[in-house]
Amino acid sequence: MKLYVGNLSYQMTDADLESTFAAFGAVNSAKIIMDRETNRSKGFGFVEFDAKEEAESAIENLNGKEVSGRSIVVNEARPPKPRTNQGGRGRF
């Protein structure tokens, strides 16, 4: 089960994110989304668990809690919306 984690501190790393969620079970992956141009955190990320029960426990215990000075948002990740604008470059 994949979780969306929002309102993260911009200084938080993937390892910090993983250790925050490891208390609730085996984390498959923890990834903070970075801006391609500035290589800085966008303030959100995703954490993936194998067991649905572990993910639900993490949501229940961490949603709204303060982590690194910020009240984080944790919920089940929704599938990405299909992109319609591919580059925006117009025709020649």
UniProtKB/TrEMBL annotation:
Q: Which domain of life is it from?
A: Bacteria
Question: Which InterPro entries does the record match to this protein?
Answer: Nucleotide-bd_a/b_plait_sf, RBD_domain_sf, RRM2_NsCP33-like, RRM_dom, RRM_euk-type, SLIRP/GR-RBP-like
Q: What keywords appear on the UniProt entry? A: RNA-binding
One Pfam family of this chain? RRM_1
- Keyword RNA-binding attached: yes
Sequence ranges assigned to domain RRM in this UniProt record: 1-79
Q: Which PROSITE patterns match?
A: RRM (PS50102)
| Protein name per UniProt | RNA-binding protein
Name the source organism.
Fluctibacter corallii
